[in-house]
Amino acid sequence: MSTTKNTFKAIALPTLLPIALAAAALPAQAADWSDTSIGIRSGTQFAEPFNPDDIKKNIIDFNHVSGYKYGTNFFNIDLLLSDNKDPAGAGSSNGATEVYIVYRNTVNFEKVSGSAIKFGPVRGAGLTFGFDANTKTDAGYNSKKRMLVAGPTLMFDVPGFLDVSVLALWESNAPYSTFTKVSTPRYSYDVHPMLTAAWGIPIGSSGFSFEGFANLIASKGKDEFGNDTATETNIDMQIMYDLSGLINAQPKSFKLGFEYQYWKNKFGNNSDGPAGSGAFAKTPMIRAEYHF
User: Fold this and answer.
1) CA distance 65 to 27
2) Any signal peptide, and if so, which residues (predicted)?
């Protein structure tokens, strides 16, 4: 594992970005199906650890999901733009900017072996692997997260999809303080598990759908400053309506809806400790997305 840590430590976001784009694109070349979208969501009650203020953020995202010969491929980039309640630096009147990348590939055991794996409500099983990476410019932490993930996935027999995974997380960070002008050497947390679910379920033939994800992330041990981390709960739910039929956009799709995020002990910071209320976000949002 030391080789993995050293390799990940050396990778900067400008390097990860073209790698992630290439990884997302390769399976899509032979895709059985694909869905690519751009979207925007906005809310005024975002929160950040150690910051007591409500923060307004506009988030622009690029999302790609596809099915290929052996499974499914998922790639997402969020560009998060904060107002000045989450400043870009010490004494700055500008808001912080963050880029967050997620890549997941799930290899479906049935597609590889040719033998169905079905029992009870489960219609399939697979192995998921991938990574998260981010960079943020803000007044305090300036996150440079790098995280590898891997573990088993069950696919449930529902309209649309519901996938549940148990993933091992290998996470590290190397923050920089604009107050002290000190960079923290890249620090690797304890390997820790995450129970995660992702879903997209149409509500009959109404044009509405229930979409989202939920993560339950165990403590990752001590943080880079020697503090205990807490179990993290992040639930992001959306009710979306497909306006395609109303605006004659078919076969393309334009969706509009309401999103709500419940995020307790954000990034492992204990909301009952020094991180305070900023580590417990309860954020309503308006969301719009266009699918090509």
Assistant:
1) 10
2) 1-30
CA–CA separation, 164 and 142 (whole Å) = 31
In whole angstroms, how far apart are CA 189 and each of 28, 81, 152, 193, 276?
33, 27, 22, 12, 22
As a whole number of angstroms, the distance between CA 26 and CA 23 comes to: 6
Which amino acid is residue 274, in one-letter code?
P
For residue 99, give the nearest of 69, 132, 73, 148 by alpha carbon: 132
Give the pLDDT confidence of 140-172 residue by residue, as tens digits.
899 999 999 999 999 999 999 999 999 999 999
pLDDT at residue 250, rounded to an integer = 60
User: In sequence order, what are the beta bridge partners of 80?
Assistant: 59, 98
Q: What would the pLDDT profile of 177-209 be if each residue is shown by its tens digit?
A: 776 778 889 999 999 999 999 999 999 999 999
Domains of the chain: 2-291 (2.40.230.20)
For 66-106, write each residue's pLDDT tens digit: 999 999 999 999 999 999 999 998 888 999 999 999 999 99
Put residue 248 in one of left, alpha, beta given phi > 0 → left and psi -120 to 50 → alpha: left
Q: Which helix (H) or strand (E) covers residue 15, if one does?
A: helix 13-29
Structural contact between residues 137 and 97, judged by C-beta atoms closer than 8 angstroms? yes
Contact 125, 155 (CB under 8 A): yes
d(CA 288, CA 256): 4
Q: For the chain, how long is the longest CA-to-CA vector?
A: 61
CA angle 93, 173, 150 (to 5 degrees): 130
Distance CA 176, CA 187 (A): 12
As a whole number of angstroms, the distance between CA 210 and CA 259 comes to: 10
User: Is the dihedral angle over the CA atoms 42, 43, 48, 50 positive or is it negative?
Assistant: positive
**Which pLDDT band, with edges at 50, 70 and 90, does 10 fall under?**
very low
The predicted structure's pLDDT at residue 31: 77
